[in-house]
Amino acid sequence: MVATYHERALRIVRLVASLERWYDRRVVRLSAIAAVLLGCSEPELGDSEHAIVGGMPAPAETAVVGLARHATSCTPATMIDCSGTLVAPRVVVTAAHCLGLDPPNIYLAFFGESVTAGGRSIAVVGGRAHPDVDPATYRNDIAALILAEDAPAGITPIAMHIGPLPDLTGTDVTLVGFGVTAIAAQDVGVRRAGTARVTAVGADEIDLAPAPAMSCHGDSGGPVLWSGRLVGVTTHGDTACVQRGHAQRVDREEAFVAAVLAEAAAGAARRPFDPAEDLCRLTCTSDADCPADTVCFAHEEQARRCVYRGLPAGTFDDTCGAGDEEPCITVPDGSCRRFVGCDDVPPDEGCGCRSTRPASALLVLLWLVSVPRRAARSARRTASTCRGGEPPRSRRSRR
């Protein structure tokens, strides 16, 4: 039996409520949802995730990037969600929880001192989160992202620490990120650095205390540097960002990152993105099966499909016009087109029925509301607590 519109809506509400229990990334404002569903305006982000508390602007740390989600409308905007570290000309290392349930190509890597001062953004076209990431403990909370092209000229990647990490307890390290400067601040988007002190080195994690700086929301995925090398990836800490922070040891993830580095070096060519291509009727087994600007990805238990810039699986109709019900998205040729989720694509002849247009809006609404948040007990270090246009993430405070 085909579910009615109201039955589908109820299922979505229940699913979102369930996700809210497991993820703590941020809550989407009703105004942001309305902006996406009713027109071509970019949803406003409130309460971004934290930046380095007690730090200073870091213009010299050019290999530390901000990760901004692709605009969910036809009005581009750069809004930093997480931080990351360039470890090769086309590879950025960040935290797995920054992706949450999303494909890697939801992100752009921003190179610059601050969003307001401007910089250059390069699309993420591949990579992945660690397959064994544990959202509850933050074990293996690392991801490696492949960029569409090399980093801007003059930017030197930061070397990862290779081999077992020595006991750094009592050692000062440098934290870098684009997060806010206080829990209530809204100044995400400026690259800052500060000093913290290692209080313990565990099997997978580095524990940190302010000295005087500490990571906060928006710093998730940013580097912990020792002697100029990447030794950790910022993951979470106390909610107020004043007592402690934690980072994933990168020496434990050497093989995972090496595999993504090899993929980036191979650089397989793919066919250009064509908005007229029916991605709903095309399944895939790897990114090589997909056009440029898409990756092979499965949302929840759906079949693996080529998904465009982090959106749910779907297709693009003609250019947008006044009164269009579906969200309008900019495609690579610069045109603004209606995005229609695969559930709303007309069925093959003989199927007898199709979902109504509002169901497509609900599909994207679910994608927006499931803004990756995570299950655990201390705060993540991702940026916006009111993120518009993204899917979920923990109850530890992620950065």
Describe it:
- This protein is of the alpha+beta class and 399 residues long.
- The protein is 13% helix and 29% strand.
- The chain has helices at 5-22, 30-38, 254-266, 357-369, and strands at 56-57, 64-69, 80-88, 91-94, 107-114, 118-129, 143-147, 172-177, 192-201, 205-210, 223-226, 229-237, 245-249, 294-297, 305-308, 314-319, 328-330, 336-341, 378-380, 396-398.
- Helix 1 runs parallel beside helix 4 (357-369).
- The longest helix has 18 residues, at 5-22.
- The protein starts with a helix and ends with a strand.
- The model is unreliable at 1-50, 344-378 and 384-395 (pLDDT under 50).
Short characterization:
With 399 residues, this protein is of the alpha+beta class. The chain has four helices and 20 strands.
- Percent strand: 25-35%
**Would you identify the regions where 5 or more consecutive residues have pLDDT less than 50?**
1-50, 344-378, 384-395
- Overall form: globular
How can the largest sheet be summarized?
6 strands, antiparallel, barrel
Helix content: 10-25%
**H and E string:** HHEEEEEEEEEEEEEHEEEEEHEE
Instruction: Kindly report the spatial arrangement of strands forming the biggest sheet.
Output: 8-9-10-13-12-11
Query: What would you call the quaternary organization?
Result: single chain
- Would you count the extended β strands for me? 20
The class by helix and strand makeup works out as alpha+beta
Radius of gyration: 20 Å
Report the mean per-residue pLDDT as an integer.
Answer: 78
